[in-house]
Amino acid sequence: MNDRPAVAIQGLSKRFKTGVTALAGIDLDVQPGEFISLIGPSGCGKSTLLRIIGDLIDPSDGTVEVNGKTAHRARLDHDYGIVFQEAVLYDWRTVSKNIALPLELLRWSKEKRQQRVEELLRLVELEGFEDNHPWQLSGGMQQRVAIARALSFDPALLLMDEPFGALDEMTRERLNLELLRIWEASGSTIVFVTHSIPEAVFLSTRVVVMSARPGRVAAIVDVDLPYPRAARTREEPRFFELVTEVRERLAGGEVAA
Amino acid sequence: MTTAALQRRAFDWGPALLVFLLGIVLWQALVVAFDVQDFLLPKPTEIAQTLWDERSSLWHAGVYTLKEALGGFALGSSLGILSALVFANFRWMGTAFMPFAVAANAVPIIAFAPIFNNWFGLLNPFSKMAIAAVLCFFPVLINTLRGLTSVDPRAIELMRSYAAGNVSVFRRVRIPASLPHMFAGLKIASVLSMIGAIVGEYFGGPTTALGVTILNASAYSNFTLAWAGIVLASAFGILFYGAVAAAERLTTSWDPSRRAFRTE
Amino acid sequence: MASIAVDRTTTPRIGAIHGARRVGLVVAGIAIFWALWEAYRWIGESLGITWPFPVNQTNMPHIHDMLHAFTQPLQPGGPPLIHYEWHWALFTMKEALLGFVLGGLIGFGLAVLLAHSVILRRGLLPYIVISQTVPILAIAPMVVVGLGTKGVTPWVSVAVIAAYLTFFPVAMNTLRGLLSPRPRDLELMRSYAADRRSVLWKLRLPASLPFVFSALKIAATASVIGAIIGETPASIQDGLGGAIVNFNQYYSTGPERLWATNMICALLGFAFFGLVVLAEHLIVKRAPEHVA
To answer: How many domains is chain C partitioned into structurally?
Structure first.
């Protein structure tokens, strides 16, 4: 495995035309295979940061490298998949066709597409729903379709913007487990934006705590809980300690030893 | 106005103005180059000349027809809005009536014109108003009804949680929400009312009417006059449309879908 | 497993009940209209009502007289009216169909063009709207004669006039549909580095389908109207337009025939509209609307 970071951010800033400074000097390296969560108060720019990594927004200052290339190149080379808070599925496509959308754009052959879609449906446990339409599925199922779609061309990097934010707690916890399973099976790097401290700690190898606007990296918390993690993990003392640490970092104070 | 606003105005209207000028130049050039018959398409310069020469009689004819159109617009639109309100409240009536609305809409106005002329009298402006009214009724009804019945269910639920009665729901939620749709229908109706009045006049009317003027001009081979009349009819239609669009802008400036469509 | 929320679309049985109810309402509606017509006629004649218009045989023929007119021969010893009406309807339908296709293609192409260029939109949209303020009735003879000198058969010229009325709703609605995808949808496409062509084919066009069909429904009736209007000034005898002009001339000797022809016009437009609705039902798959 090469030692080049999957995502290398240096001195990143973003000022919007409206005068709002969303990000002020972000430095961050994400190693391949890591699971990084970005957490911070509302308006701290975490979604903006994610979009800059995905070359959906241009930075004002600083550099972003994905897989050793510019973010722009990485997007054109299809190096990442993205999942939004809303599933953004197309009403007029069935579940299978929604998942196959990026593969169609990449001009995969019909057989390869079909095979890959079947694999993915198994991965996200939605076999049997190939021919359903998005409105026939629950919110959690729609997000699973969105995740399957993001993984369809097996990208090295997965960007996720509060994908479970619109779901209820129980579905969310279940999908967290599923996401970890998928992550381990695919070996991709994940940058995950969330509002939920327990979710960030549960999923990540490291939690990046951001400050309020203008967003900076306030702290990075190493999550030393062992993988594979299970529902039980949420009840371990170490989990609570880490959650508390993140919470206190968010509040801006030092952690009591 | 600030330079930025002026620039924006120029950018908004510049292309359309350019196309207009290009169009006129092209028209003139093509007519001359292909030596097109007067009957088919006179030169824009000739039409402009005739418009100026006959401006008095044309203007009066135009206003006469505009009045018919306005009368029909008022009648047809108010009936359409009223019906929409009724159908929105009593859904079953709407479902029953809609197929007839579609069928009646499919009857070309050509078929109504002679009947209305027979009913109300050839020279009576009301016969033309009736035609305009019929043309206005359906677009206004259909669009307004769609607006009244496509409300976000949560907005209705909120009102019910305040124990608001049906009338209140209508006044505070449905009617404001339906305004953009209603105006879409009114804009269509404004153009149709003018056309309806003219079509009616084609089947007979006083010589002081624009449609009759155009028809007679054609019959006496005065094609530049006919085209001048057509241009004037179109101009009045555009003015009418513009007036309704202005009213729409004033009352529904809050509607995001309208803005999204118009500006980029 | 996450909770399953599969929406079972209505079973065939419920669908049939809905359909029967609809048909029942339409039949009831026709019956009520008939009753109202005859009632007004009867009251009007008895009381000698003259406002808004005099109620008599000429102005308001009995509906059964209108229907009866279909069975009467046009010329002594000739075939019944319905025979002629059928042929006229077919002729007009031919024009309307061609006009529908022409206008639809032009409107659609225009919309795709305008969807991709703000400048073109600003420049052309006003004129597309203005085009509909021109009274087509006044222009119709010029179009027919003008195209005639170029060797175009009259009925095709009429189809052009029908296309004139058709292209507008198709262009406007398709444009709205093509521009309907939300920023998030476009962002997703950007993340796939999709080119404009892919965005058009995979996102904009499918998203525009409901809008296109709503336009086609309007266009269906508009093309029939355009065809009939186009026929009248050009004195084309073979279609419904010509029939209307003739029966209007001889209205006092046989008012029922004009009304009968009007019925046929309505049926024609309605049938065309119905075809489009059927096509929409088969082609467009969308989430059921959640509106109150």
So the answer is: 2
C84 belongs to a structural domain: yes
Query: Average per-residue pLDDT in chain C?
Result: 84
Residue C127 lies in a domain: yes
Task: Report which DSSP code applies to A225.
Answer: P
Is A105–C192 a contact, with Cβ atoms under 8 angstroms apart? yes
Residue B231, Cβ neighbours under 10 Å: how many? 17
CA–CA distance from B89 to each of A233, B167, C32, C116 (Å)?
A: 56, 10, 20, 41
Tell me if C3 and A138 make a contact (CB, 8 A cut-off): yes
Domains in chain B: boundaries = 1-36, 42-262
Three-state DSSP class for residue A220: strand
Instruction: State whether C53 and C113 are in the same domain.
Output: no
Band of the pLDDT at C289, cuts 50, 70, 90? Answer: low
Q: From CA B115, how far away is CA C59, in angstroms rounded?
A: 8
Domain range spanning residue C35? 12-60
Instruction: Identify whether C45 is part of a domain.
Output: yes
My answer on whether omega of the bond before C52 falls inside 30° of 0, hence cis, is yes
Pairing of strands A206-210, A35-39: parallel
Set of chain C residues whose Cβ sits within 8 Å of the Cβ of A84 = 184, 187-188
In a domain, C290, yes or no: no
- Is the pLDDT at C6 greater than 50, yes or no? no
Chain C touches chain A, with at least 3 Cβ pairs below 8 Å, answer yes
φ and ψ at residue A24, rounded to 5 degrees: -130, 90
Helix ranges restricted to H, C48-80 = 63-69
The domain that contains C265 carries what CATH number?
1.10.3720.10
- Greater model confidence, C45 or C12: C45
Closest CA to A125 of A137, A135, A113: A137
Is B32 at the interface with chain C, CB within 8 A? Answer: no
CA distance C120 to chain A (A): 27
Chains that touch A (3 or more CB pairs under 8 A): C
CATH classification number, B42-262, choose in 2.60.120.510, 1.10.3720.10, 1.10.357.10, 3.40.50.300: 1.10.3720.10
Instruction: Report pTM.
Output: 0.82
